Amino acid sequence: MLHIGDASIFEEMYRSRLDELGVGGVRKLLTDCAERANNEHLLALCYEDLTKPGLSCHRRLFAAWFQENTGEAVPELQPAVRQGQLFL
Q1: Domain carrying residue 48
Q2: Whole-angstrom Cα distance, residue 63 to residue 53?
Q3: Is residue 1 part of a domain?
Q4: What is the pLDDT of residues 24-80, one digit of tens each?
């Protein structure tokens, strides 16, 4: 899917996969990841610079889907947040 050049097609396919998993499936994947890492703090990262016009990323697509389906926001980290502040 990452090689799809059309952002609208990518978004449709990505959301379809999330819909197939459902909120319960996504929560299970995230819980399993946190347990394997032995850390309750999860952070979704990508390399796209969203300050540049026209760029998007699957991380923000996920955040939008998750909020639409659960009412829970997935906030962006602010640039001033440092790694030491994330893992207390």
Answers
A1: 7-86
A2: 19
A3: no
A4: 999 999 999 999 999 888 888 777 777 777 777 888 899 999 999 999 998 887 766
Burial class (CB in 10 A: 0-12, 13-18, 19+), 39: exposed
Q: Based on the structure, what is the number of domains in the chain?
A: 1
Which amino acid would we find at residue 4? I
Instruction: Return all residues near 66 (Cβ < 8 A) that are at least 6 apart.
Output: 23, 26, 72, 74
User: Has residue 2 been placed in a domain?
Assistant: no
d(CA 54, CA 37): 34
The whole-angstrom separation of Cα 78 and Cα 88 is 17
Please indicate, yes or no, if residue 23 is contained in any of the structural domains.
Answer: yes
Here the tokens at position 40 are 């309750």
Q: What whole-number distance in Å separates Cα of residue 8 and Cα of residue 50? A: 17
Residues 4/10, Cβ–Cβ less than 8 Å:
yes
